[in-house]
Amino acid sequence: MGHLKLPVTCMPVFTALSIFLVLSLYYLIFVPLARHITGHPHRASQLQRMGIGLAVSIASVTWAGVFERHRRHYAIHHGFEDSYLPAMPNLSAYWLLIQYCLIGIAEVFCIVGLLEFLYEEAPDAMRSVGTAYAAVGGGLGCFGATILNNIVKSVTAKGDNEGGRESWLSHNINTGRFDYFYWVLSVLSFINFCVFLYTASRYQYRVKGETEKNGGDK
């Protein structure tokens, strides 16, 4: 970045920084704005915020695929195919910050909405268990990511023994096809988003249902 050299391991720090910044703006700007637009005293619902987070996450992984395709073509065109570690001129690392910041924005909306949803919708005696489901979901996601990576490596590297192409997830990112992998993630994320919209549209909030029931009893 200009005259500043950053190690690769520093890049995820920008996700944490974006979470800190967006979380501050979330309660300062988004909450009052959402309350004004929706007219709902509790601002946007938890499911609406989770939907926004999922949509932003799709944008993040889609941008990652777009930029990775451009980066790979640039590296091959300028002779970096076999030497992918040195910095490449005229290709700023700032472009990577877009996807990291989008991830941070998605986490603010999705995780905050999810925790509030699990806490408020769980039975009173199971609220602590409900919030623990978020951690369980994250752990299962890590297992799912590992399984997906192994499947992609196995399927896309079938021709290695016969002199075929390398896996999409090759150690050399210039000979691999990480952009294809990002497209797969984009498609899976979009399918997940559609399923979420379908289930969220059919969900009835517990508090609302109890209020209506109590009103009917009276």
- Measured as a percent range, the helix fraction is over 70%
- The assigned structural class equals mainly alpha
Gap from first CA to last CA: 66 Å
How many separate helices? 6
- How big is the Rg? 22 Å
Mean pLDDT level: 82
Regions with pLDDT < 50 over 5+ consecutive residues?
211-218
- Cα shape: globular
Which strand-content bin applies to the residues? under 5%
Which assembly state applies to the chains in this document?
Answer: single chain
Total strands: 0
Structure report:
The protein has 218 residues and is mainly alpha-helical. It is 70% helix and 0% strand. The protein is built from 6 helices and no strands. It has helices at 13-38, 46-77, 94-121, 127-156, 178-202, 206-217. Helix 2 runs antiparallel to helix 3 and helix 2 (46-77) packs antiparallel against helix 5 (178-202). The termini are far apart.
Short description:
This protein is mainly α. Helix content is 70%, strand content 0%.
Descriptive labels:
mainly alpha
Spell out the blueprint of helices and strands.
Layout (H helix, E strand, L loop, with lengths): L12 H26 L7 H32 L16 H28 L5 H30 L21 H25 L3 H12 L1
Helix pairs in contact: 1-3, 2-3, 2-5, 3-4
